UniProtKB/TrEMBL annotation:
<feature type="transmembrane region" description="Helical">
    <location>
        <begin position="33"/>
        <end position="53"/>
    </location>
</feature>
<dbReference type="InterPro" id="IPR003663">
    <property type="entry name" value="Sugar/inositol_transpt"/>
</dbReference>
<feature type="transmembrane region" description="Helical">
    <location>
        <begin position="121"/>
        <end position="143"/>
    </location>
</feature>
<dbReference type="InterPro" id="IPR005828">
    <property type="entry name" value="MFS_sugar_transport-like"/>
</dbReference>
<dbReference type="GO" id="GO:0055056">
    <property type="term" value="F:D-glucose transmembrane transporter activity"/>
</dbReference>
<keyword id="KW-0325">Glycoprotein</keyword>
<dbReference type="InterPro" id="IPR036259">
    <property type="entry name" value="MFS_trans_sf"/>
</dbReference>
<keyword id="KW-0813">Transport</keyword>
<keyword id="KW-1003">Cell membrane</keyword>
<comment type="similarity">
    <text>Belongs to the major facilitator superfamily. Sugar transporter (TC 2.A.1.1) family. Glucose transporter subfamily.</text>
</comment>
<feature type="transmembrane region" description="Helical">
    <location>
        <begin position="92"/>
        <end position="115"/>
    </location>
</feature>
<keyword id="KW-0472">Membrane</keyword>
<dbReference type="GO" id="GO:0046323">
    <property type="term" value="P:D-glucose import"/>
</dbReference>
<feature type="domain" description="Major facilitator superfamily (MFS) profile">
    <location>
        <begin position="1"/>
        <end position="392"/>
    </location>
</feature>
<dbReference type="InterPro" id="IPR020846">
    <property type="entry name" value="MFS_dom"/>
</dbReference>
<feature type="transmembrane region" description="Helical">
    <location>
        <begin position="364"/>
        <end position="386"/>
    </location>
</feature>
<keyword id="KW-1133">Transmembrane helix</keyword>
Amino acid sequence: MGTTKVTAPLIFAVTIATIGLFVNRFGRRNSMLIVNLLAIAGGCLMGFCKIAESFEMLILGRLVIGLFCGLCTGFVPMYIGEIAPTALRGAFGTLNQLGIVIGILVAQIFGLKIILGTKELWPLLLGFTIIPAILQCAALPFCPESPRFLLINRKEEESAKELLQRLWGTQDVAQDIQEMKDESIRMAQEKKVTVLEIFRAPSYRQPIIISIMLQLSQQLSGINAVFYYSTGIFKDAGVKEPIYATIGAGVVNTIFTVVSVFLVEKAGRRTLHLIGLGGMAFCSVLMTISLLLKDNYGWMSFICIGAILLFVAFFEIGPGPIPWFIVAELFGQGPRPAAMAVAGCSNWTSNFLVGLLFPSAAFYLGAYVFIVFTGFLVIFWIFTFFKVPETRGRTFEEITRAFEGQVPAGNRGEKGPIMEMNSIQPTKDTNV
C-alpha cells in the first residue's frame, strides 16, 4: 500500500496535461460531470478487488482514481474562480481545499479498526469513493455553466448575463459583462495558448513561474510527508495511540481551512501565504529539536505533537488553499487551462517525489529530515515576499494587464493602457 501512496500522485501529474482538452470542448461543468465516471469505475475496481482475489484490480483502481483526481484538481478551482464574484473569489476558492481536507478526515475516521480498517472491510472503505461521485453526478446538472466560458468561448452573451444575475443576485452585471467582452476580444487577437506557449510568451512567463513556485511551496513544505507517515512520526514522538493523534491532525487541518475561508478576503492571499510559510518553518525547526531531545526529556513528546498540529494549522492558513485558486486568478480565459495543467503537474510531481523520497531521507537523516523542509520553506517565503503580487479584489482583466505591463511594448499583442505590477501589490486598505 505504501507504493500506491506515491504512484497515485504520479498518475495525477500525467493526467493533468489533458485538462485543456476537456474544459475547452465540453465546458467547465460538463467536464466535472463526465470525469465522475472514472471515480465510479475506480471505486468499483478497488471495492471488488478482494472478492475477485485480484491485486491487479486494486492497482488498476488506484490508476483510474488517479486519472480522476488529476483532472478534478484542474477543473474545480477553474470553475469556482470563474463563477465567483471578484470580492469573494478567494473565499470561494478556499472551499475547494475545504472539501479536500474534509475528505481526508472522513477517510481517516472510517479507516479506524473499529469501523472499516479491518482485514475484512477495507475494500468497502476504498469502494466508498463512488459515493461523492454519485452525489456530484446528481447535483451538477442543476449547477450553471461558467458565465465566462459561455461568453468568451461560446459567444453566448445573453446566457452569460442571465447566469451572472442569478448567481450574484443582482441585475447590475454590465461592468462584469463588459470585462468579459474585452477579454473575449483580446483572446480572439491571440493565437491558441498551449502549454509550450505558456513558457514562450513573455507576458505569461512571470505568472507561470509564480504559479509553479506556489504549487511547489505547498508540496515541498513537508505537509504530505507529515500526513503520509504521520502515524509513524507520532509513534516516534512517544504517542501510545498514534492513529488517534493523526486524526487529531486531520481535525486541525479542517478547522483552520474554515478559518482561511473567512480570512482570505480580509488579509489577502499574499499575506496569508507568508504567514503560513513562516509559521511552518518555525514549527519544522521545533519538530526537529523535540524529536532529537524526546529520549532525554519526556515532555518533549508533547512539544513535538504541538509542533505538528501547529505545522498543519499554518499550512491551511496559506500554502494549503491558496496555490490552487490563485493560478486561475493570474491568467486570462485563453491561457488558463494550460496554466492549470502546468501548475497541477508540478504540484503532483513534487507530491510524488516527497512520498517516494521521504522514507529514505528520514532513514538517513533521522529527526534532521525536517530541516530540509525548513530550507525549502525559507526559500519559498523569500520568493513570495519579493515576487508574488496581491490579487485580492482585482478582476482577471486587471491582473492580466498588470503582468503585461512588465513586458516591453514590442512584445505585447495589444495596445492600450497597461497597469503596473505595483498596482496589485498589497496596500494598507484591507477593504475589498
